[in-house]
Amino acid sequence: MTYLISQKKYKNKKVFWMTALLFLFGLLGAAFWFVMGNSNGNLNEENKGVLETTTPVKTQSRAKPYLTITPKMVRQGDPALITAEGATTTRDVKSFTFDDRPLFIFLHEGQVSALLGVELRAVPDTYPIILTFNDGRQIKENLVIVERQIVRKPFDIPDKLGGNTNESEKELVSTLALEGKIINALPVVWKKLWTEKFGSPLKGPLVVTDDYGYTRLIGKSTTMPHKGTDLKADMGTPVYAMNRGVVKFASSLRNYGSTVIIDHGAGLQTVYMHLSKINVTLEQKVEKGDIIALSGDSGYTLNPHLHLTVRIWDISIDAMKFLEILGEN
Ligand SMILES: [Zn+2]
């Protein structure tokens, strides 16, 4: 033991006893610190039912594990990344729920996480998120869904789909419903395939020509939410896979046009529509940055562009907000 003081080292007793006293004070201090630290631990143990935090607390002072939600403000149609800071293995987790509905858990940057897609028509309110560990401990956080401002704009039916007539309006509604069903019925990849952040589907800065979420007024009586983001892309612009995944759809649809859907696992899909050329085949594995297609104006479009949809399970969310939380830089 290096702390043992040998009497032989000290030539006079005075120096020895002073050193011994100092050593004793040091020991007392360490014991006091240890007891206080322990009593804090006991406090957490006693309160181990639900640890709830609704007010922001400095990260350093929070006892792990605790839940964080990104982005800070979650609107209708937004994605939310929920992370259990300090929980590093999914094996310890019994359940992870949003409003009593189970969330799919995975490790993101070494922490137990889940992705939530908030429906565009979700009721703005406060919803509980609860993570229960196998040993019974729970951590809880409230997710507040804020209303998204919805703009309404008229949208024509192009001549190639019959123009603005009652018949083409009816056909549009019925065929779009069918196409939605086809996409919802695609088999899913459960395992999270991506490890890197999500990249851009186009080279250079993205220019949004039509926002996610606004309501298109079509014909006499049809209203249709735009559940994707339209990006400026001239005819024949290369379109890149936003991350590693498997092609689960590579075909042409009446309204969505030539479409590629990549499943990235863990409920995440990226959807590229109105393409002019598809470079991939069904079940093909793709890496981030692979050129999967060329953009175009196939299907229900008024001009060439890339329509990008990001889906979390069956919910189409705001792709630009998604890139803010899981994209590069
Ligand atoms: Zn679009």
UniProtKB/TrEMBL annotation:
Please indicate which superkingdom the organism of origin belongs to.
Answer: Bacteria
Q: Which UniProt keywords apply?
A: Membrane, Signal, Transmembrane, Transmembrane helix
Q: Which residues form the M23ase beta-sheet core domain?
A: 225-313
GO MF entry, a single one: metalloendopeptidase activity
Instruction: Output the CDD domains linked to this UniProt entry.
Output: M23_peptidase (cd12797)
Q: Does Ubl conjugation count among this protein's keywords?
A: no
- For whether the record's keyword set contains Iron, the answer is no
Q: Which residues cross the membrane?
A: 15-36
Q: Could you tell me what this protein is called?
A: M23ase beta-sheet core domain-containing protein
Organism field: Candidatus Zambryskibacteria bacterium RIFCSPLOWO2_12_FULL_39_23
